[in-house]
Amino acid sequence: MTQLLGVALRGTGSCLPARVVPNEEFTDVLNLDTSDEWIRTRTGIRERRFAGLGETSASLGANAARNAIESAGLNPEDIDLIVCATVTPDLMCPATANLIQTALGCRPIPAFDIAAACSGFLYALSVGSQFIRTGAVRHALVIGAEVLTRIIDFTDRNSCILFGDGAGAVVLSGTQVVNTGVRKVRLYSDGARQELIQVPSRVTPVPPPGPPQVQRLEHMRISGREVFRFAVTRMVELIEQAEIDARELGLNGIEVLIPHQVNQRIIDAAIETSGFPADKVMVNLDRYGNTSAASVPIALDEALRTGRCKAGDTVLLVAFGGGLTWSSALVTL
Ligand code: UT7
Known about the structure:
Layout: E1 6-15, E2 19-22, H1 24-28, H2 36-43, E3 47-50, H3 57-71, E4 81-85, H4 96-104, E5 111-114, H5 120-133, E6 139-147, H6 157-160, E7 165-175, E8 181-189, E9 197-198, E10 221-222, H7 224-248, E11 256-259, H8 264-274, H9 285-288, H10 295-305, E12 314-321, E13 325-332
Parallel strand pairs: 4-5, 4-6, 11-12
Antiparallel strand pairs: 1-7, 2-3, 6-7, 8-13, 9-10, 12-13
């Protein structure tokens, strides 16, 4: 049997829109019955970024990808595969990955999207890793890109305050060194709880269930309180399982936990229950809010650029969201 390759994390990049939207905008401009204090204390979010007129998942994703390719010391023509996670594609067809491929000037290579909501980046990371591990491709570009502000209901104070736009990307490369890079990925889903987070499309057969004000087909719908409970429970399980995985892999430990940037209270509750050290948790949701599939790669890129983690460290990436889906990855940098 052919020897499986290691999957090195060779580069990271991110791209955030320039427009900063502080909490006050929801009261002062959108006239919502909320407050900066409520948003800060219930979510930890102070501000987020909104995409400008010309900005889309593809344009933000392409910029994040360029940065990741540059940090990997490669050129766009070196890339053999593009996997883009998004629930806010520019078009249903072609895939956002195809638009990014063209924007970057890549060769004719496989390029496709993955829809697994806030877990999307880790699903895409798993797919990209497996292409590399088997030797099918050498360099894979894995992207999470979202413009959630195009699908949120700005009259619904329960959801619109939570989300922001952005993109993050990584370059994965095959290596003969097997004890580095992507060490273990765990993916889960439970379609039975699909109604808790929904983004209807133009082909949705009937309006989703829910009170009349959220039945509009074009908007995202979330059941915040239920998602909150699901997220804490799953995050605790993922951390505890990853700690077992890390021991079985012979790792010295987990240097940094990079969770999906959803709500500070969800992260706090999960680390308190699991006993994971709070000072090892990377959080940037105060500045970017929840960027769905983009949140983990944006935080990973920031953690590396700011020295929160360094070469040789093992990071635990954890995400959960619509589907319902939940996922984790242990990555040695
Ligand atoms: O990535 C996956 C997608 N993300 C999610 O689904 C988010 C997960 N959930 C959450 O982050 C939290 O559940 C929320 C931030 C959405 C809500 O926080 P909570 O502490 O669970 O609040 P709640 O839903 O229990 O609501 C408490 C009160 C309610 O008022 P009453 O019924 O007690 O009078 C809400 O109407 O807070 C009210 N409320 C608000 N008040 C001011 C809800 N949103 C707001 C708001 N401003 N923006």
